Amino acid sequence: MCSLALFPPPLPPGQTTLCESNNELLSGANNSEERQDSSPLSLHFPRESLKLHSRTESSSKAAFLDHSETLWMRSAAAWRDGGFTGLLNEVTTSHAEVPKWLSVTSGCILALLRWVSSFHGSLHPHVTLSSEDMIAEFSQVLNWPDCVVRAFSWHPHADKFAVALLDDSIKIYNPKSSISPTLKHRLQRNVAAVQWKPLCASMFAVACQNCLLVWNVDPCSLSTRPSSGCAQVLSHPGHSPVTSIAWSPSGSLLVSASPLDTAMMVWDVAAESCVPLQRVGGGGVTFLSWSPDGSHILASTPSALFRVWETRMWTCERWPCIKGRCQSGCWSPDGSRLLFTVQGEMVIYALTFSGSPGVPASMVKGPQTAVVVADLSETTFNRPDGDIIVGGEIQSLSWDPRGERLAVLLKGDPQAANRPAIIAVFKTRANPIFELLPCGFVQGEPGAEPRLMQFHPNFQHGALLTVCWSSGKITHIPFYFLSSGVSHVGLSGSPPLPHLQERPADFANQSLFTELLS
Amino acid sequence: MFFSATHCCFIRKVIWWRAAASIAWSVLLLPPTTAVFVMLSKFSFLHPIQTITDCLALLTSASSVFSVILLGGVVIMVGFLTLEYYTVIPTIACSKIALLGQLLQPRQVVNSFAHCLMGMIVGWCCAVAVGHRYETLGYPGKSSDGHPRMCLNEYHLVFLLAGAFVGFSHSLLGVIHNINYVSFHTVQQYKYLHFKGSLPLVVKCSTIQAFYAVRNFIVVYFFLGYIPKTWICKTLNLHLDSSVHPLDSIAGVVDLSLLYHLWISATFLLFTWYITLLLFRIFVTEVYSFPVQLAFTEDSHQCLPKVLTDNQPMILKFLALQDLALLSKHSPSRRREVFSLSQPGGHPHNWNTVSKECLALLTDLTQRLATYHETVATNGRAKSLSSGSERKTSSETSVTSSTEDLMSPRPAFPMKTPASVFARSIAGGPHSPLTAPFTPDLDSPFASPALRRLTAPMDQCSPWYGSVQSPHIMRRAPKLWSTSTESQVNGSPPPSPASVPSPKQEAAKPSFLAQFLQNRKEQVKSFMAKRVLIMYLLNKLPEASSQALFADSQAHIWALEALSYLVQASFTEDQFGVVQTTLPSILSSMLHLQEAVDRHFKLPHASSKPLRSTNSMEDFTYKTLRFALRATLKTAIYRITTTFGNHLKAVQMSAEHRKRLQQFLEFKE
């Protein structure tokens, strides 16, 4: 099977990808600043403009003078801040004031607890991470701690989006209004994901370090700083940090996942109640993805195992992986096909679900094995200014809502200059057989690497890929094409961009993978 | 007669078998629970082996088998009481006195007494199982002069009384926390998984509740313990042993072993009862798939449209609505049956019945909200903003009349005239017309709750008593009350007739008798307002009236979901266009409801969230139903607008609604 070698070579430095038109990716020189700025939704968040927290709350403790409180006060404070272990720690360390037997006992219990937790940690290494490291590890965003734009979400129906920034604020942009509300909340820290509620104009959920927030921002409001009273706080003991959230496509339920909680929470947001769905094994849940038809949920765990839940009776299938955990996944628009990637492997797998939603769950036969649909192992392209190596592990996958373009964010190697992080875009075709065809690479300005990407949920003329770059820029790359699957009644007949040149689409016939071949 | 018999059969098949299965499972779970309880009660750190052998010996003995049989009987009894008292629509007391009235209802007193008795039986079983000093009521002791005589074993007595107390407080708290309310879950799970998932919560709840119950019991016994003690001594001719500490003293109470055993027994008691309750809830709310249409007419009473229109029993209607919502969401084949035409004649009977019933539910809620708002705006808290109230009232009446407009010119439903609704309400129960004057005072402290209970004894199975009234009665009643109140209290002239539409003028002239009664009522009111305790009892609980309004909103939520999903599916699946004819009325009733809900949420207390604690078996769903309804309503409208898009512009509707719908189309709501 062939690999990324079938792709057209990456652009020379100084060129950025502008759009796809007439079956090929067009690029432009880098001096297209004015064109970028003219578009109202292309944003730039310079790192310097953000007011960051200089210290985290725990580290600011050392800046104050030493205290001379009584043991009771300190114990109470330790209980409040650190819980049971904090209390034990306090009692053990202040052995001058407490009776000897008490400090010895608490020391023993503390040692026992540590031993147990280290045992637990050896089973599931991720539990020893701090919560920020954990979010960085399991986030879909490349190099999350360093990102200016930490999360991005298009509204599923209207032309607006929410952006979570490094300074823990969220901004909402709407091209039709000049007001972009900034949302801040005391509990809104280390945002890992943002998602709008489907079939609703104003609500979106935010996965924070300690809880879930559901903002309700009135689209007609003129306020630029909606109060934190607009946010509902959803929290459950033991369910933090939240690294992934997913709304049901019908807008009724919200699921959330935390790597430290083996239960996946299904929230009824209006009632603020949740149902924990607990299954043994895995040690947590890291990534969730709800299929567009609402029938299945992908839930990956920190160990080499992921589950696919069906949402009728909430039962799950276990899918053990061989090598590593499931890093990312995405569903085809009809919910029948799941593409996923595994950490440590450079391929994309596919699972096919053939159950129609009306059939009882017992009769639906799931797929037996996953098949490899694309190989993204490293490939060297020769360029005049030196070789460039593309390929490797995959950070995230994104499939456009029509199921025609698949964007793959490749991690690259931050240390090596000639191995950049890059977005590879495939054309996908479901009929008559499922195929992935090469489309091209999406590149930004020199020095800017892609961190986060998402397709616009309802772009009229094809697909629109939004990319957040490490420089703090957000750009939109349109892919103009006529969809083969849907009727073209509502679409404008031809792609509106001028055709620079006509070239036969010689890549279109070369398939990376076909089901018949394997 | 034949019909009602088969109908009864059907109910029995659905509900009673489920209840029986749940009771059977809870009885089956009893032996392992008892074993765990015995282990915990006899556990000693120093002799672990001996503990186990002791337990095994006890568990295989004849007395323990007898105890388990007795406990099984108790569990069956609890199960039957749950079946008898469960409700899908919670009764929400709007003031303290109403709550008191609920507690003193004869039905409830019987329930408390039964629980008390069963608690005592469980207490006896626990005392026998724990053994040692707790085992018997009397023991041979010696009097001060050396004569052998039977002495009272106070430990045993404490166990019996503790059991009775815990049982009693369980039933009391059950009323206060609406423990008999059965809620339906949005997340459907298989019964076993659901049970497994809820088990930790039950353990936690029972331990915590047992702790509080034992604490309260100790306090009560400390002060009042001498009464049952002397009574038992007198009747059974037992004597008090002066050599042991009495338990209603400080020294007697601070007995850790006794406290531990009391607590573990109370936990055991509550655990078995909660498990019974949980299993009942799980079994009875399980999805039941009704056939949409059957080939044979004899079984037509089992069909979904038929069950939907029946109001008795309520649970069946709820199950049917749930099934309708699920089929509209998940099942294309069953949706096809709903959209299908009848074979001879070609009428869309299924769709007509389904949509009519759902629309009736929505219209009913809209009216209820409008009436409530009218009452509040003229009679309640909003009276202080007198400048706004006049305007509000007039807009209110315009809404009410427009809902009527909505109903009357609908040729598709000849059933849906006000008169027919009224007829149905009369048919629903002989008491309904009687309750009419009391219904608008749902929130008023002076509508005697006891009287309301008496006149509507079946209210937990028929919540529609205040709702399926004719709009004329519904409107006239609050007006009668409110306008005359205005004139009496403030001495202000009645609202100018120019602002009031004509149908209200006749209502604005109260009869002499009514005015006289109103006078007296006002005098009593001002007299009582001076008494603090009475005002405490009569004061409205915040947001309770709002909760009461939306108490049965689960039905409306399902109706909204079902309608919106069916309309969405009709875009591609409806071959004969049966949905198109009703689309305007669906949209307008949804928009009417949206207006009414929006207005309701502007009232004080309506949008405040209740506090929730996870320490009791109380189901909080009913407290947040109004939020769920609001969210579902919006989602439902959006579901229709996103599916149909600009095609909706071809639908006939009023200009106001068109404007509103345009906002939905532009995602500005």
UniProtKB/TrEMBL annotation, chain A:
SMART domains: WD40. GO terms for biological process: nucleocytoplasmic transport. One of its GO terms (cellular component) is nuclear pore. Transmembrane segments: none annotated. It holds the Pfam family Beta-prop_Aladin. Coiled coil: none annotated. Residues 130-480 form the Aladin seven-bladed propeller domain. InterPro entries: Aladin (IPR045139), Beta-prop_Aladin (IPR057403), WD40/YVTN_repeat-like_dom_sf (IPR015943), WD40_repeat_dom_sf (IPR036322), WD40_rpt (IPR001680). PANTHER family: ALADIN, ALADIN/ADRACALIN/AAAS. This is Aladin seven-bladed propeller domain-containing protein. The lineage of its organism: Eukaryota, Metazoa, Chordata, Craniata, Vertebrata.
From TrEMBL, chain B:
Coiled coil: none annotated. InterPro entries: Nucleoporin_prot_Ndc1/Nup. One of its GO terms (biological process) is nuclear pore organization. It holds the Pfam family Ndc1_Nup. Residues 481-491 have a biased composition (Polar residues). It comes from the Eukaryota. Residues 380-413, 480-505 are annotated as: Disordered. The chain crosses the membrane at residues 23-43, 55-79, 116-135, 155-180, 201-224, 262-284. GO terms for cellular component: nuclear membrane; nuclear pore transmembrane ring. Residues 395-404 have a biased composition (Low complexity). The keyword Transport applies. It is a multi-pass membrane protein. Keywords: Membrane, mRNA transport, Nuclear pore complex, Nucleus, Protein transport, Translocation, Transmembrane, Transmembrane helix, Transport. It is found in: Nucleus membrane; Nucleus, Nuclear pore complex. One of its GO terms (molecular function) is protein-macromolecule adaptor activity. The keyword Membrane applies. Component of the nuclear pore complex (NPC), which plays a key role in de novo assembly and insertion of NPC in the nuclear envelope. Required for NPC and nuclear envelope assembly, possibly by forming a link between the nuclear envelope membrane and soluble nucleoporins, thereby anchoring the NPC in the membrane. Belongs to the NDC1 family. This is Nucleoporin NDC1. It comes from Crenichthys baileyi.
